Structures are given as C-alpha cells and as structure tokens.
Fold:
Amino acid sequence: MTRRDLLQGTLDLLVLRTLVGGPRHGYEIARAIKSSSADVLQVEEGALYPALHRIEAREWITASWGLSEKNRRAKFYSLTDLGHEALAAQSKSWDEYVRAVAGVMADAPGRAP
Amino acid sequence: MRPAPQDDVRADRLRERQDLDEEIAAHLAHRVDDLVSRGLSTEEARARARQEFGDADRVRIASRNVRDRARRRRKRSSAFETARQDVSFALRQVRHGRGFALTALVTLMLGVGAAVTITSVVTAVVFDPLPFDDPERVVFAEMVTPAGQPFAVSEATFLDWRREVRSFRDAAAFANRAGTLRRPGQPSSISVGHVSHSLLDVLGVRPLLGRAFRASDDLPGTEASVALISHAMWRTDFAGDPTVLGTSLDVDGRLLQIVGVLPDGLDVLLGDTPVFVPLRADPTSDRGDHDVDVIARLASGVGFDVARSELADVQERLSRTHAADLGWSAQLHPARWVLIGETVERAGWILIAAAIVLLVMACVNVSNFLMVRSTARRTEMALRTALGASQGRLVRQLFTESSLLAAVGGLFGLALATMALPALRAAGGGRIPRLETAQIDPTALFVGVLAIALATLVCGLAPVVQLRTDRLSSSMAGRGGAAGDPGGRLRSALVTGQVALTVLLLSGTGLLLRSFVELTAVDPGFEAEGTLAFSVDMPDGSWSFAERAELIPLLRDAVSSIPGVRAAGATAVEPFSGSALGNFVAPEDRLPDRASGFTPIQWRVVTPGFFEAMGMELLAGRDFTESDDWENGTPIVIGESLARQTWGAESPLDRELVWGDPEGSRMRVVGVVEDLRDVELGQVPSPIVYRPHRQIPWAVMTMVVRYEGDAAAITAAIRRRVPETVPGLPVGEVESLGEKLRRAVGEPRFNLQILSGFAVVGLILALIGVYGLTAFDVRRRYPEIGIRLSLGARPQAIRSMILRQRMRLTLVGIVVGLGVAWLASGAMRSLLYGIAPGDPLTWLCVTLVIVVTSMAATYLPTRHAVRVDPSRVLNG
Structure:
C-alpha cells in the first residue's frame, strides 16, 4: 500500500469533516484522518497544526483547552456555524471535482468497455 | 498605562508560543500513550513520537506566520472601521456573485425606468383626457368635398348647422387669421383667433380671469371691440398680472379691450394663437368660402352615431338648396380623433408594448440571477434546514432579500425616469402635442410600483421554487451528475426567450430607422437650406389692394439688393405652416357640366421670383412677371402632378383651366413647376395652382429669400431694410426654412429616438442576461473544463465547444423573435414610410447585431474558463 501526501486545501476539508462528530484535539484529528482513509492518507503533523491555526483564524473552528479521554490536558477544536457552511460548500465542489474526473476518465479513449 | 500596540503583539505572540508548545507536548504525550499501549517502552515511545513529529521549530514558525497574517487582517479592519469591512464584503459579494447585486440593480433600474418614463409620456400625449369638460362628448364637424376629401366649413353653413342640428347642445366655429399687433416699438404680425362666443361653452371650460365672449360681442356686421388672450400671452407679455382685464390691445389698428384670460392647456385645440376676437359669423357669407373649423358638444343622451346621421341629413338638405354646396356632404369626428390622431395613438401603444417587453426582460434577468445565486447557496439553505431553520423562516429571509433588491432597483428606476423625462420633452421639439405636459404622474408612479411589486414577487419566489426543486432532486440524488440539473433547461429557455424579445425590440426600431431615413431622403421639391423666410402683413384697414400690389415688388427689390441675396419672392401660404387654400378646377377642353366633376386642388398666390428663391425647378414655360396683371389675361403656373393628371404627356402650356365651377374664370397655363411637399413630407403632393400676386394682392405674404454667406448678417440687413422701405410694415420673425423642414420630421424622429433608446436598453439587458447565464453555466463546468485541459484539450477547442452550444440557443431565439416580429410588424404599418413592414434589410441587420452581442456575451466567460487552474478546482 502506498501512502499519499495530501494536497493543500484538501487537508482543510478533511479536518473540517473530522470535526463534524464533535470537538477533537490535534492528535485525534490526525488519527481519525488516517484511520478513516484506511491508512492511505498520511497527515504530517508538521502541516496539521499550522492548518488548524489557519482554519481557526478563519473562524471556521474554535479551540479550547480540556481533558482528553486519557485524562491529559489537550486543546480541543470544534466546528463553528461558519465552519459548517464552509464544509458544505467545499464538500460540494469536491464532489463535483470527483464526478468530473470520473466522467472524463470514463470518456477517456483506450479504456476497455 | 496602556501598553503600546507593539507590546500587545509581542504579548500575543508569547502566549501563542506557549500555547503551541503545550499543544505539541499534548500531541506527543498522546502518541507516547498509544505507542506504550502497543508494547513499546516509555523511552522508545518518546523517541519515536518525536521523530514522527519532525522539526517542532518548523511547525512553530509556520503557525506563527499563520497567526501573524490573521492578526494583520484583524488590525486592518479595526483601523479602517467596520465601514471598510462592509464595503469590501459587499464588493467581495459582488465579485463573488459575478456582479450579481450590481447587475440586478442595473437591470431593475433600466426596466422600471423605461416603464415609468414611457407610461408618463404616453399618458400625457395619448391617454390623458382632453382638457375639456366631458371631452368624449366634444366632436368636430367638417365638410366633405364631392371627391370625398375633408374640408373646412363656411360661416353661413356653420350658422345653419348650429341652428338646425338638434343633436348638438351647442356648436362653435373658429379660425386663425393673420393680424397685426401694435405695441410700443415694431408692430408684429401675429395669428388672431376668430372664435364664436359659444366656444368656451362647447368646450365646457371657464376663463381663468374675466369673462368669455357674449352673444352681443358676436353679432355679424359689428366691429370687434373685445378680446380674450391666451394663458401663454398672459404669462409672458403681462407677467401673469391679475389686473390685466380692461387693458387695450391694438390689433389691426383697432383698440380691443381684454375681457378675459383663457385657461392653460387649450393650446391642444387653439395652438399658440395669443389673441382671440369674436368671429361674428356672417349668415350671408359665400358658402364657397370654407374658412372655419366647427366644434360641437353633443346634447345629453344623444349618441355619436345619431348626431352624425342628423348632421348628414341637415347638410344633404342644405346641399340641395345652395348651389355652392352641390355634391358636398358633412362628416362628424370625435375630438380625440382629430386632435390626437390615430398615428400618435398607435405609436403610443407600440411604445407601451416595448416598455412592457423591457420590464419583462428585466424581471426575467433578475429572477434568473437570484435563481443562479440560490443554487450557489443551496448548501447553505440545506444546512440551515438541517440545523432546524423552518421552511417559513427561509422563505421569509429570501423574500426580504429579494424585496430589498427590488425596492432599491425600483427606486433607481424612478430616479432614472425623473432624469429621462426632461430629455424626452426636449427631444419632442414641439411637434408632439401635449408632450411638454409629460411628468411622472400618479398613473406612471402606480405602474412603477406595480413593476417593482412584480419584480419582487418573481425574484422572491424564484429561490423558494429552487428550494423545493432541490428537495425533489436530492431525493433522486443517486442519479447525480449533469442529468440532475433541473434548472438547466429552464435557463436555456430564458436565454432563448430573452434573445427573442430583443429581436422584437430591435426589429421595431430598425423599421422606424429605415423609414426615417426614407422620409428624410424625400425630395420636398425645394432647396430648404440657404433660405430665410419672414412674413409681412398688410391688413385690409391699412392697405388697399393697389397699395399691396405696389409694396410687395418694392420690398422684393429692397431685399434682393442686400449683398449675398441671390433671389427673393413671396407666397401667400407660408411653407410648413400646415395651412392650405383649396378650390376646384377643370380643363376647358373637357369641361364637366357640373361643379362636382371638378378636380380639388390647392392654390397659392405667389410673386415673381418665388420659385427661384425656393429652388423649385421650372419644368416648362415661364415664371410670373410684374406685368402679369388683369390686363394680361389670367396666367397661372401649375404643379407637375396637376399637369400630368390633366393632360398626360401633352404640353399644358397655353391651355386653359376653369376655376371653381363651369361658369368660373378661364385661366391660361404659362408655366409648370416641380411639385412641392411642404405640408406633410410623407404625403403625396396635391395638385396645385399658383396665381400671380399682381392680380390677387394677398394681405399676408411670406417673403422667401435665397442667400449665400452669413445668415445672421442677412437677417440683420432684412430687419433694417424692410422698415426703411415700407415704414410701419409689421414684420414677423426671420426664420430658416431648413429649420422648418427639420421640424416637419420631428414626430418620426421622436418615435425613433424613444424606440432606439428602448432597443439599446433591451440590448444591454439581453447582454447582461446571456452573459450572466453563460458565466454561471461555464462556472458549473469548471471542474470538467479543468480536467479536459489537464488531459490535453486545447483551450481553443473548449472555447468553441461552449460557444457552439450557446449560439444554438441564440439562433433559436432569433428565429422565434423574427417570427413574432413578423406577426407584430403589421401593427406598425401606419408609422412606416417608404418601406414594407417585412423589410429584409432591417431583419438582416437585427440578426447580425444579436449574433455579435450574444457571441460577445458568451466569449467573455469562456475566455476566463480556459484559464482555469486545475488545482483551483480542487480547493473549491
């Protein structure tokens, strides 16, 4: 199995998606992305935190300190209303993108019927 | 003391740094926990976690950059206050929605503005009731010649009608005759209205000041001693002085006492005549002198048809008893029909139809854009619904947004109309009756508000409809993809419809434009440029026939000697004055035994040199000379159509025409001139006879002067030379005939200007519409385009693919539009001159304009699309 690096922007989308279920801290977010993509998508921690802070600055998520399930202090991120809307919009254009790619690939010459 | 901003930033950064360190520590701690639970030792787990995390400093720098940028943004917005934020947000919205808000406002402004403007104009010109009491009961009665042409009435006939036709509650006669108004300074030649005392009663209006004429003022055989003045004269010459009553006016050498001032608005009937005197209609007058117009009010309970047949009966009896009326009949017309006319009314309806088309286009455009935007906001709506917003709440929100938009757009439209109306009033140039009264009246305002309400409703409903469609489509979401675009077909239909409406507008304008070009190309039969004209008045009381016959040649010589003057000559009928003298002639060699077999003609008295001054070509024979007096027989010059009509290809020279009736005088044709069109350019020229001034020394003559050089200098020389030559002679304004000619095409030009304005607005709306919809469609296809590009499709190929698809819609629209235009063009027939409603050149041009416009509207968004960066698609 090859592991794929994430394109910029896609990471934001995935982070937002991960937070739909409720507030999560950074480590949990990284693990959730990895596990829900069956280990295909690898989030680099070095990229995750700047991304979180960027999204926070856009007010799509808010952060607050709390205790994790392991009873450790951790910073929890949760979606704001704005974040919900952004996620919806981004998911839609992502869907279109995927559909368009699929459409073009289906049209592509040389493909076996 | 408050810390400096710089310290603030530093403190923030420090806090963020500590925060991040803690966050990283927490991350590592969790990772270590995980790894330890998988069996690693604490030491191994720590090392592994650190290694996985990589360079913490890099993360710190990246995070600090992110936060610094956010800080700068916040700081900027606080520095420029919220206003700046709002503006940039609005601008972003506008940019983001592809000019959505702006476009919608412009669209509504144009649509509503056009509707309000045109309703105001058409209401004033066409639909406003005439300024009379119960105007539907006011009628015009006129004579009809044996040849079936409408004609003026004689004073004796008018008196008979007034007495005998019981369907008339009352009748009045009026005629404008030239007069001389003498005030301190130069006497001036004016038009004096001779009116029956019953006129104001018939119209059902009261004088603004003073009284109307009484029956005792109006007795035949008496001298006029009282006068009424027009509202305009009262305002300008007497500065609205309320004590004007009792003032004396010197008209034609008699002192008349002003007894009343007419109310405003009567100019629709009486023109710009300033002074009115009693007509004193003479029952013994010659019934062959048709010189008054007759207006009447129907008796209560009497229908128009009853009155018409009674008038016909009365005239039939009169025609039997009076030889001069033999073969003549009488006709009745509603006052509206005479004073406003069918052509103007038809033009009014066409303009209203054009305004409605524009309004519909505007509403379609706006609801389109709202629909497009609501598609973009579909997810927002869906999410809000998911978050528990009620359907009613969403509808209310959408409706509020739409109403706001429509209301503001509508207000802009009213503002536009407020600015457009004065321009239109000026463009009408005095040729369109009652145009100057046009203002944004309550009716127009009502139409404007109605338009706004309509737009609001359409706009407000569109997104809601979309929302419902969305539910439906999301329940079928599995089918997905391009097929699942329910709005696509609707949008295509809208593009097609819009193109069709624009074609309709452009066709109408094109036809008027072509017809206007034809009309201005009409040869009026004379050279209007390089001529000046002024009238001189030698009223009966002051000048005898003999004096007039001598004075006019003197005057002509004086004017001719002015340097720069090439020719001068006078006529009794001022060109483009709209007045005409009628009579009947028959050739001596084929004389009918009754007057009814005679040909109706127009006739004019002219002096030698008139044809030359007018630039009319002498086709055969000679011009008059000063020796053409009674001693020399009765020479006449005739127009070419009368010559052709009477003698065909044979020479008319030295043949004789009989004047009026079989016993009339014999007149010898000495010359033939070009026909003249100086009444209505678009009409076929009437047969015409010219008679020499020497024999009929008319009182009011218009001197026409052909010149080279500076008009102002020559005008000044004329103004100086005339009083020197004939002291005390009243002279009117010196005017250019070219100017009069241009005024004569005033009404067609006005129609053209308005409709052209509409066509341009329509074209803009269509451009906006097609552009907006294409842009939206293209944007929807960005992912597809991006992929095609990255798979190697050439931008050119993609561009022409989209262009082809859109042009197909445009062509369908053109075909539909031309079809409708063809069906509708019959309605324009009476407004056209020289071309058929199905003019192929016009339609070709319209098609070209639309194709080019539509291509431009499609090209712009496509050009943008092929620059799509595939990775942008990824980011949304």
About this structure: Chain B touches chain A through 46 residues (CB under 8 Å).
